[in-house]
Specification:
Layout (H helix, E strand, L loop, with lengths): L10 E5 L4 H12 L3 E6 L2 H11 L3 E5 L5 H13 L6 E4 L14 H29 L3 E6 L12 H21 L4 E8 L8 H5 L1 H8 L13 H8 L10 E4 L9
Parallel strand pairs: 1-2, 1-4, 2-3, 4-5, 5-6, 6-7
Helix pairs in contact: 3-4, 4-5
Length: 252
């Protein structure tokens, strides 16, 4: 039987691959057969991941907040003769602040990374995919906070909500070029940077609001990631897939 999720012969760029979900996404796509381009600011962490993966992997330094850095990444991909098929637009950040205390600097920092950075990389990947004339799949990593709000997260929620609108706008304009653009909207996923918080009483109270009464694990994202990356989703574009244990449908 044809393996719908097989990524042999495909090349995927993953941004923010030095830790957390990005690192996991790179491993998952590599396991499905893809050549992975891992990128982030911390190249020593990327070197470790490259060693772990062994083959079919290239790493390039990337700061999504810098136009020069994104343009350099484009040149690096082209010089290495890599034809981009998949982008996992994952690099992201947050800076929780009460709205009344939110500084313009903090607001700009989050928007610059999560929205402008994602735009920059998506634009670069689109240029490459249009040049290749083979189409492609762009997956923007949004969040359930792009669809509802939480305390002290106005900049983050705004950036992710805008990323969802960008996803749909891109999907509409790029559909005729066979470039599919979709978003994954994870709920609370346990990673190395938030495990301390979720162990606290406040963190445990957050978990109680999730209908499935648990945090997501990185592996819980694999199915949707492979679906959107592969031909299994060949007629899907402009979609937002929520992976949240029912968090978005908790009762009002
Ligand atoms: P993380 O902090 O471990 O990973 C973020 C990655 O982005 C890191 O590798 C970081 O170095 C990179 N990054 C940040 N700024 C960058 C920049 N300017 N240039 C290049 N790389 C940069 O956090 P994570 O939880 O793995 O988050 C990954 C993505 O998933 C983010 O977009 C986040 O908003 C989203 N997300 C996470 C969760 C969750 O519960 N963990 C839930 C919903 C959405």
């Amino acid at each position: 039987m044809k393996n719908l999720f097989n990524l042999e012969g495909r090349t995927a760029l993953i941004t923010g691959a030095s830790s957390g979900l990005g690192k996991h996404f790179a491993k998952t796509l590599h396991q499905a057969g893809a050549f992975v381009i891992i990128s982030a600011r911390r190249t020593e962490k990327l070197e470790k991941l490259k060693t772990e993966l062994g083959d079919k992997c290239e790493l390039f330094k990337l700061d999504v907040t810098s136009e020069e850095s994104v343009s350099e990444l484009k040149s690096n991909i082209e010089s290495a003769n890599l034809q981009l098929d998949i982008l996992i637009n994952n690099a992201g950040t947050s800076d929780p602040q009460k709205f009344k205390d939110l500084s313009e600097e903090s607001w700009n920092y989050v928007l610059e990374t999560n929205l402008n950075g994602a735009f920059r990389v998506a634009k670069m990947a689109t240029d490459l995919m249009l040049k290749n004339k083979k189409g492609g799949s762009i997956i923007n990593i949004a969040s359930i906070l792009g669809q509802r709000v939480g305390l002290n997260l106005s900049s983050y929620a705004t950036s992710k909500s805008a990323l969802i609108q960008l996803t749909k706008s891109m999907a509409l304009e790029l559909a005729r070029s066979n470039i599919r653009v979709n978003a994954l909207a994870p709920g609370y996923i346990l990673t190395e940077i938030n495990d301390d918080f979720f162990a606290t009483e406040e963190g445990q109270n957050y978990i109680k609001k999730i209908p499935m009464n648990r945090l997501g694990l990185e592996e819980d994202l694999d199915g949707a990631l492979l679906l959107l990356s592969s031909d299994a989703s060949s007629f899907m574009t402009g979609s937002v897939i929520n992976i949240d244990g029912g968090h978005l449908i908790n009762p009002l």
